[in-house]
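Bug: token stream looks shifted between consecutive jobs. Job 1:
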Amino acid sequence: MSFDANLLYVDGDQPDARVYVNGKDTGVTLANADTLGPMMKDGSVTVSAVYHSPDAGRLESNEVVLQNDDSIWLEFPEVEKKEEEPAYAEGSEPPTQEEAPAVEELPVEEAAVSFTESDVAQFTENYLHYSVEAMNVGSFDMVKHFHDPMGKTYKESSEYIDYIVEKGITEDLVYTTVHDVQNNGDSYHVVVEDAYNIFYNDGTATYKEFLSTFKVTEKNGELFIHELLELEELRSEDIH
């Protein structure tokens, strides 16, 4: 059995929307997607996107079944902005600041985590995959949307990519395996084993395996890498 597996150009009318493949969040926005793949184009793969509108909440684009497509366009339904109704009777003057009743400000509670453990595991694996690509091309922009801007990894990832580029190091991701996803109510702790071939600018190379624990948070219906809680090197050996 043969498959037509090629790159796919993806675009749409909401740059901040997240791209989904076969119903799974890739962690990549339309603005950063550009090309995906290689993708099987035999009808077994669907591509769509999800956008969280401030006026309408979660919106889903059209879903495209890949059939020899070189490029696709993902479009969202139009949303009418909510108009605030005046708090005074039509034809009357609005109350002055002194006349207006005081409004008690209530604390805003963060929404509970709404993703499944499988979603979080897939998101973390996608992050590790794109992190290697970002390091190899020297572009933090490729992965900054994975990071919580208020988290520790946002700055750490940017600085590490700069370090990798400066040292002339490249990496190949050999495998990733998520061992555990712990739901803590307002975040997840994800334990993942990952292995890399690391190539240095002097021609040497090393194979390394790690066991890492990430803190993953949710904001506005999206997942973000917040912090690398633990990092243990399991194995290291020269391969050149």
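Job 2, same session, no restart:
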Amino acid sequence: MSSGGKFVDVDTTNRPGILRAKEMSLVSSNVQIETLVTPFKYDANKLFDPFEQHGRLFSFFRHPIDRAVSLFSCLKYAEWEPSYNPAYKDITIEEFAEMELGGENKWMTREFSNQREGELTDEHLEIAIDVCPQIVLVGLLSKRYESMKRFEKYFGWKYKFMPTNKETCRADWLVKGGNKNENKLAVHQPGSPAYKSLSKQYHFDILLFDSIDETLFWEQK
């Protein structure tokens, strides 16, 4: 490109894309990759040669109840999103809170205990709490500014390519957030029926998030 940017056509947000990236030797001594975005961290880890390259996982975390409400908003209202599902048009947040949420249910605990299917136990929660500080540099959506400063300092990020645009985008995101749905759902009040139901479904994830929010985020400061 005339502006100096270089791009690789590969999608690491799915397993076939990660396999293709490995076949392309995407992560190699000849290619400078600053960031890979993927929900499949264990698969993506195979892209690295343990003797030549080292990656560091980083992530923004949000409260599981907020995440569940955001998911419901996308399913119900966000017609522009691939996740939109008209079947949820007439479903209330209270009804949604009682539904089996499939892979989203206890997603964080499943991800960090590497138990994507089957029943979760207290042991899986303990594994997730133990693994998380070992492999993740954590950020909190509720503390976007502090988290971005942490990531930028750790990785030495510099805005060299289109710096003005990137600084504007960064500032806008820090103030307003991104991809927000303006539909307000009265579920955030502890004690509401929907909040109670979601808390039961996300019990493990809430405990894991609390360990990140109350301890790990500050220990990594």
